[in-house]
Each structure stands twice: as structure tokens, then as C-alpha cells.
Amino acid sequence: MAYDDYHWTAWAAGFFEGEGCITAASGAHSKRGNIALSVSNSDLSMLERFRDVVGVGAIYEQRAKTTPGRRQMWAWNLWNQREVDQVCDRLWTFLSERRRTRIVELRYLRAEAIMRALRPRECPTCHCEFCPMPGNSATAKVYCSKRCRDNAPYKRERYRAKHKAAQRRYVERKRLASGLV
Is 0.70 surpassed by the pTM of this model? Predict the structure, then answer.
């Protein structure tokens, strides 16, 4: 069965329209404005077909309810932003105005978060203004260079305190070893 067919894409969009959810990712990812897509259903085969049509995502078993008579639920989830954009673009033609508006809203929030992360800031060590590079470590987003990070005042003080404590321990061990108690 060829899942890249126009009709299968329309089916997937209808299924997503009825059962799907578009949200801003929660937790640590929410600050970056990431978008998450999910579809919940009690029919695993429908979710597998949906995943095959869109070509990405993972299906998870949701925790079973303890209420008797409840059916087991499954969820298809997608967090990878490149893949989220691909799925949204593929289903776009068939989605309702409400879903399209939500996608545009969340894409705008993601762009805003990226601009906020890359805004010029002041290095706390040398006080120069710099723009952090995307993809660098968290410390690179605070300091303009590794040199400034390593020479940060709090790090120097912490190093000195550690060094003095180690020196005291060394002197104490020497004194005990020599028998000068």
C-alpha cells in the first residue's frame, strides 16, 4: 500500500483532526518554543497506519486506567521539530482553520524563543557584548569565550578555596606521618 498517496494524506489529516493534539512541548523544551504533536486512540492498528502514512513518530502504550470496562489507550507522539514541520506541512491542505491557526501560533512562539536565545548579551567576566552561537553548550551562552568562562570570579574563588583546603589536608597528613602531633 502506497502511503504517500493524496487520499491517504487526506485520511491522516482527518484522523489527526479528530483525535490529534498540537501543543507547545512541556518541561525543558517549552522554553525553546518546541511544538509537539500527539494522537491518542484505543485502536493500535489505526495509530500504526497513521504513523506509516506520515512516516515519523513513535507509538507508546498509555497507562491503563483501573476503572473496569476501560479500553487500553495508545498514543502516537512526535517532538523532533524538523519532523513536526514536515508532518504539519504535509497535512496542511486538509487541516481546519483552527488547527492551521494553532500551528502558525506555535511556529511564531518558536521563532520568538530562538530570537530570544540569540539576542546580544553581556559577558559577566569581561563585560563585552556578544551574540551566543546556536548549538553551543549552556556556558557558551553566558560567557563570550572559554577563557572568560574559566576566569569567572566565582570559579577563581571556588578554585582557591579548594586549593587551600587541599593544602591544609596535605600539611595535616605530613604532620601526622612525621609524628608531630
Answer: no
